[in-house]
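Lab notebook, bench 4. The sequencing result for the construct came back, and we need a structural model before the next group meeting so we can plan mutations. Quick request posted to the team channel:

Model the 3D structure of this chain.
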Amino acid sequence: MSRSISITGGYHRLFSHVSYSASWPVRLFYLIFGAASVQNTALKWSSLHRRHHTHCDTDADPYNARRGFWWSHIGWVFHVGKHDLSNVPDLQQDPLVQWQARWYMPLVGVFTFALPIALASLWGDPLGGFLVAGCLRLVFQYHSTFAINSFAHILGEKHYSSEGTPRDSWITAM
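Done. Here's the predicted structure in C-alpha coordinate form:
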Protein backbone atom coordinates (compact mmCIF):
# COMPACT_ATOMS: atom_id res chain seq x y z
CA MET A 1 0.00 0.00 0.00
CA SER A 2 2.78 2.45 0.89
CA ARG A 3 4.39 1.82 -2.50
CA SER A 4 1.18 2.40 -4.45
CA ILE A 5 0.47 5.61 -2.55
CA SER A 6 4.03 6.71 -3.24
CA ILE A 7 3.48 6.29 -6.97
CA THR A 8 -0.01 7.81 -7.16
CA GLY A 9 0.24 10.52 -4.52
CA GLY A 10 3.99 11.09 -4.72
CA TYR A 11 5.52 10.43 -8.12
CA HIS A 12 2.33 11.29 -10.03
CA ARG A 13 0.48 14.05 -8.17
CA LEU A 14 3.26 15.68 -6.15
CA PHE A 15 6.40 15.38 -8.27
CA SER A 16 5.03 15.16 -11.83
CA HIS A 17 2.00 17.47 -11.66
CA VAL A 18 2.93 19.53 -8.57
CA SER A 19 -0.75 19.31 -7.55
CA TYR A 20 0.06 20.15 -3.93
CA SER A 21 2.98 20.79 -1.62
CA ALA A 22 4.14 18.43 1.11
CA SER A 23 6.45 18.58 4.10
CA TRP A 24 9.89 17.00 3.80
CA PRO A 25 8.94 13.89 5.85
CA VAL A 26 6.02 13.17 3.48
CA ARG A 27 8.23 13.77 0.44
CA LEU A 28 10.90 11.48 1.92
CA PHE A 29 8.28 8.76 2.54
CA TYR A 30 7.17 9.02 -1.12
CA LEU A 31 10.76 8.88 -2.36
CA ILE A 32 11.76 5.87 -0.24
CA PHE A 33 8.68 3.79 -1.02
CA GLY A 34 8.56 5.08 -4.60
CA ALA A 35 12.04 3.59 -5.00
CA ALA A 36 10.72 0.36 -3.47
CA SER A 37 8.19 0.28 -6.33
CA VAL A 38 11.14 -0.13 -8.72
CA GLN A 39 9.55 2.15 -11.32
CA ASN A 40 12.62 4.38 -11.58
CA THR A 41 13.64 7.49 -9.69
CA ALA A 42 11.08 10.24 -9.11
CA LEU A 43 13.23 12.41 -11.38
CA LYS A 44 13.05 10.05 -14.38
CA TRP A 45 9.47 8.88 -13.73
CA SER A 46 8.23 12.47 -13.56
CA SER A 47 10.18 13.47 -16.65
CA LEU A 48 8.58 10.66 -18.66
CA HIS A 49 5.15 11.48 -17.29
CA ARG A 50 5.47 15.17 -18.07
CA ARG A 51 6.62 14.24 -21.58
CA HIS A 52 3.54 12.01 -21.91
CA HIS A 53 1.20 14.88 -21.03
CA THR A 54 3.04 17.38 -23.20
CA HIS A 55 3.13 15.13 -26.28
CA CYS A 56 0.15 12.79 -25.75
CA ASP A 57 -0.55 10.46 -28.68
CA THR A 58 2.52 11.53 -30.67
CA ASP A 59 5.85 9.85 -31.34
CA ALA A 60 7.35 12.00 -28.55
CA ASP A 61 4.93 10.40 -26.03
CA PRO A 62 6.81 7.53 -24.33
CA TYR A 63 3.56 5.58 -23.75
CA ASN A 64 1.91 6.60 -27.06
CA ALA A 65 -1.43 4.74 -27.06
CA ARG A 66 -1.65 5.07 -30.84
CA ARG A 67 1.14 2.47 -31.04
CA GLY A 68 -1.25 -0.11 -29.59
CA PHE A 69 -2.49 -1.46 -26.28
CA TRP A 70 0.58 -3.58 -25.50
CA TRP A 71 2.95 -0.72 -26.33
CA SER A 72 1.19 1.67 -23.96
CA HIS A 73 0.81 -1.03 -21.31
CA ILE A 74 4.35 -2.39 -21.09
CA GLY A 75 6.18 -2.34 -24.44
CA TRP A 76 7.48 1.19 -23.93
CA VAL A 77 9.40 0.04 -20.83
CA PHE A 78 11.79 -1.96 -23.01
CA HIS A 79 12.44 0.92 -25.40
CA VAL A 80 13.01 3.95 -23.20
CA GLY A 81 16.33 5.44 -24.23
CA LYS A 82 18.43 8.08 -22.55
CA HIS A 83 16.37 10.31 -20.29
CA ASP A 84 16.14 13.96 -21.26
CA LEU A 85 15.59 15.67 -17.92
CA SER A 86 15.19 19.20 -19.30
CA ASN A 87 11.47 19.19 -18.40
CA VAL A 88 12.08 18.67 -14.67
CA PRO A 89 14.31 21.60 -13.65
CA ASP A 90 12.32 21.97 -10.41
CA LEU A 91 13.08 18.39 -9.42
CA GLN A 92 16.73 18.72 -10.40
CA GLN A 93 16.94 21.47 -7.76
CA ASP A 94 15.18 19.44 -5.05
CA PRO A 95 17.77 17.99 -2.62
CA LEU A 96 15.52 15.09 -1.53
CA VAL A 97 14.81 14.08 -5.14
CA GLN A 98 18.54 14.24 -5.86
CA TRP A 99 19.24 12.16 -2.74
CA GLN A 100 16.82 9.48 -3.97
CA ALA A 101 18.40 9.50 -7.45
CA ARG A 102 21.85 9.04 -5.92
CA TRP A 103 20.78 6.23 -3.56
CA TYR A 104 18.10 4.64 -5.75
CA MET A 105 19.60 1.15 -6.13
CA PRO A 106 20.44 0.70 -2.42
CA LEU A 107 16.90 1.87 -1.55
CA VAL A 108 15.48 -0.70 -3.99
CA GLY A 109 17.64 -3.44 -2.51
CA VAL A 110 16.75 -2.68 1.10
CA PHE A 111 13.05 -1.83 0.84
CA THR A 112 12.07 -4.18 -2.00
CA PHE A 113 14.06 -7.30 -1.16
CA ALA A 114 16.14 -7.22 2.05
CA LEU A 115 13.37 -5.99 4.36
CA PRO A 116 10.69 -8.47 3.13
CA ILE A 117 13.23 -11.31 3.32
CA ALA A 118 14.27 -10.29 6.85
CA LEU A 119 10.67 -9.98 8.06
CA ALA A 120 9.63 -13.31 6.52
CA SER A 121 12.70 -14.91 8.11
CA LEU A 122 11.15 -14.16 11.50
CA TRP A 123 8.60 -16.90 10.78
CA GLY A 124 11.03 -19.09 8.86
CA ASP A 125 10.08 -18.24 5.26
CA PRO A 126 12.75 -15.98 3.70
CA LEU A 127 12.08 -17.43 0.22
CA GLY A 128 8.38 -16.63 0.61
CA GLY A 129 9.28 -13.07 1.60
CA PHE A 130 11.39 -12.73 -1.51
CA LEU A 131 8.86 -14.32 -3.88
CA VAL A 132 5.60 -12.90 -2.50
CA ALA A 133 6.49 -9.59 -0.85
CA GLY A 134 9.30 -8.90 -3.31
CA CYS A 135 8.65 -10.34 -6.78
CA LEU A 136 4.89 -11.07 -6.90
CA ARG A 137 4.07 -7.69 -5.38
CA LEU A 138 6.19 -5.99 -8.05
CA VAL A 139 4.42 -7.80 -10.89
CA PHE A 140 1.00 -6.86 -9.49
CA GLN A 141 2.00 -3.25 -8.90
CA TYR A 142 3.64 -2.91 -12.33
CA HIS A 143 0.50 -4.05 -14.09
CA SER A 144 -1.70 -1.85 -11.89
CA THR A 145 0.39 1.20 -12.78
CA PHE A 146 0.81 0.26 -16.44
CA ALA A 147 -2.94 -0.31 -16.75
CA ILE A 148 -3.39 3.43 -16.40
CA ASN A 149 -1.18 3.95 -19.47
CA SER A 150 -3.17 1.44 -21.51
CA PHE A 151 -6.75 1.09 -20.22
CA ALA A 152 -7.18 4.84 -19.62
CA HIS A 153 -6.88 5.23 -23.38
CA ILE A 154 -9.47 2.60 -24.37
CA LEU A 155 -12.07 2.50 -21.54
CA GLY A 156 -14.47 5.27 -20.66
CA GLU A 157 -15.65 8.52 -22.14
CA LYS A 158 -13.76 11.28 -23.91
CA HIS A 159 -14.59 14.50 -22.08
CA TYR A 160 -11.93 16.82 -23.44
CA SER A 161 -11.21 16.01 -27.08
CA SER A 162 -12.70 13.60 -29.56
CA GLU A 163 -9.35 13.39 -31.37
CA GLY A 164 -7.10 12.26 -28.51
CA THR A 165 -7.12 8.83 -26.90
CA PRO A 166 -7.31 9.79 -23.16
CA ARG A 167 -10.57 8.82 -21.47
CA ASP A 168 -12.19 9.07 -18.06
CA SER A 169 -13.37 5.83 -16.49
CA TRP A 170 -14.30 4.86 -12.96
CA ILE A 171 -12.55 1.53 -13.57
CA THR A 172 -9.15 3.11 -14.20
CA ALA A 173 -9.78 5.61 -11.41
CA MET A 174 -10.06 2.71 -8.99
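The CA atoms of residues 109 and 115 lie 8 Å apart.
Will bring this to the meeting.
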